[in-house]
């Protein structure tokens, strides 16, 4: 957790101010019992009303000052903790944005969300408590002991017995609860994962009538979290009764022995009253420590999880001295003996891949499920880095380019259409922020999306639900394609982006694409043979290796695997 506190650097002076304010508050609270003792000993006992009013005024002034500095300390502590949370969330989000797909797979999306929200909130709350208590608790404890000794040193022997007993009880309770605090965060991760899967997969769940099964999964995760939280709260609930028991027994002992001291004339009634208040302040300072001990372990576990994210270095990084970016017109993509393996995989996802895609031509990639088609496409924008060989754009190895330079020249339409909440035109402009209305309209027209957009009451201003839930699969794909087209890059990557389109729309879209991609290299990953038949070059993948390269006619003559794919989808007349 201390590593995270380096982000408090902008608040150093404010932290010093909070410490000073809390110091003043502690001094005010320590001074009040002494004033009360003087009022009783010198005012009430001797019947000096003027002295009572005068000292009462002092007490009122000290109380007002203590209240003001307490409010200011809380205000500034809140600002510091909230600012700290904002900084850490920003750092985590910025760092996560640099992750490759490998890091996302390693941590998991649900856990990433929990770490960015709940875990940071835990650390933020503890920081707030530490700023308030880490000065006050020791001040109240040490100051209370000094003032108690000043009032009556012999009576302090009662505290010498009570304080170790109280500290031991607190330590036992906290030690018992620590493992549960650490377990809560992991179980919260599990609950988030189940909830996220249930919400994202609601259509599949309902279509297979598995609602009760998912409800059971959620109930199990929810109950597991609840049982752990109840258990730790049961343990911590013992603390307050134990504290009150020890404090009340201590008070009885102080009054008992203090009465003897008063009878012997060794101390006054006011001093005994002040001593009792100092004893309570000392014990409550220990309670403050215990509250910190309760929250710090859970926050420490959260801080470790946040630290894991911040310390995890992305496997895909920009080179220290980036090469000059390729020219916009240079859309030549070259694979030279490229191989790639996923971490922990038994065999490579791609092996010895070599081909060349040039502007003005369509290069199609086809193959069975798991043959490595999407993996191949993802190596171009450096979602992953090749294990061996090189991927070049315009003659420059993509590893020697910064990710920003590289991706400026690429437009990717992913296999699963991803849309963002906002209007239709906002989603299309996501590919090019400064696109004009005409460019947006032209991109939608080429993507065969203009017709359904204009059929909406608001047209291009129509608001999309989260993830484009109010659109069909084909409509979402066409908007994703329009988003890529408006970018006008030198390389287009279509990762099975026509699968949700009917054959007629598919054909019209591919015909329209030819007119706007003449200066760009087009790589299409597809499952449907009809989508790739007209490509200038078709690459057939089989278990991560190239099993054939050529036109449709050439592959029909020379590739057995391609003929099997064609035969499974087209009739003999269609494949001719």
TrEMBL record:
Domain ABC transmembrane type-1: from-to ranges: 16-298
InterPro entries: AAA+_ATPase, ABC1_TM_dom, ABC1_TM_sf, ABC_transporter-like_ATP-bd, ABC_transporter-like_CS, P-loop_NTPase, Type_1_exporter
ABC transporter domain sequence ranges: 333-568
Bilayer disposition of the protein: Multi-pass membrane protein
Segments crossing the lipid bilayer: 52-77, 130-150, 156-178, 235-258, 278-296
Top-rank taxon, per record: Bacteria
Alphabetical list of PROSITE patterns matching this protein: ABC_TM1F, ABC_TRANSPORTER_1, ABC_TRANSPORTER_2
An annotated GO cellular component: plasma membrane
CDD domains from the UniProt entry: ABC_6TM_Tm287_like
Cellular localisation: Cell membrane
Protein name as annotated: ABC transporter ATP-binding protein
Annotated organism of origin: Paenibacillus pinisoli
Organismal lineage: Bacteria, Bacillati, Bacillota, Bacilli, Bacillales
